[in-house]
Amino acid sequence: xxxxxxxxxxxxxxLSIANRILPGWLxxxxxxxxxxxxxxxxxxxxxxxxYSETFAPEGLRNIPRLVGLRPEGYFFKSCINSGVLSHFxxxxxxxxxxxxxxxxxxxxxxxGPTLFEFYRKQTGAGPLDxxxxxxxxxxxxxxxxxxxAFGRPYGANVVLPKQLLLEAVQEVVKKGANEGVAxxxxxxxxxxxxxxxxxEGVGWTIFKAGRNLDRHVRETLVRGLVEYxxxxxxxxxxxxxxxxxxxxxxxxxAPRLILVNFWDMDVAHWGSYSLYLNAITRTDRLxxxxxxxxxxxxxxxxxxxxxxxPELGRDGDANTANGFLNHRSGDPSxxxxxxxxxxxxxxxxxxxIHHIDVAATAAELLGxxxxxxxxxxxxxxL
Length: 382
Ligand SMILES: [Zn+2]
Known about the structure:
It contains twelve helices and nine strands. It has helices at 6-13, 15-21, 64-69, 87-96, 115-123, 161-175, 184-196, 215-230, 238-253, 273-296, 332-335, 357-366, and strands at residues 39-44, 74-80, 130-134, 157-159, 257-261, 304-309, 336-342, 347-349, 353-354. The structure holds zinc ion (ZN).
């Protein structure tokens, strides 16, 4: 997939068309003179990964890109998740600056305002200036909170690439065998793996995805993906699809605030240690490619901070032979993570920080005032 040209992707995903059909008032607003133009990308190195498979000495071989980036960025050796150890709550805690205790599977929005809402309400940024692109299928309500003073009018676009892919597959099926779709069975078999992966997605705990995307944009994306999955190149994992769409969003809309949620490594729930390690290395590669994009994209170069952290760890092996399977024990292996910040002064520290400090830090970098965050800004990055 990395070989797929931008032009080809934009053509098949319809992003250029989406760009044209959006009414003018939906376009992201240019920052006013004097307003900060800093951009922030939050990357959940996600799905649940332990220190022992990442920045512990025995884990370094799994993350060659991050190991290479670490000396260029600022590394927090201890980033602690003190909240509920589910994917939705952990990520919502990162975005709201408060430990969230809502439904574990995304059936409720975050309880307090997200960073997206503070950012858009305070700066007047348009809807195309805040995005969440998520592999986790249960993240469709991650874009805005239940807080009535904020909420949907100030939320982020949420894109679930796998859901778009599912809709695209349904389109393919609807077309029938005589509609010129070559190797249809092969295509569907290939994509089945992507669509079904993720233990906690079993049961399809999803809302109508993309509901906050303009209807025409979604239809166009789905139409484009139908061509994409029948084309010569197809994604081999959900995270690759997420990377690709996140990068196209950066190129087309250049938003100032993006959450990129990777999740493939949660395949560990199925019990295969080798698949878990493969997913870690893939996420490492994709995270490195996101930073490469920042460095080569004039809209992002020299004005972007990228904050990379696992949203949670996984159980240790102390009490069970295969701790990597789950993330429910609450032991240090589940909670004690790391954070790597890029685009900031170099350095590292033992000073413990917490997941809820991310939103407060991002708010400072974006030049916005917040209220009610339990977390505090990471002074090392400001
Ligand atoms: Zn999980």
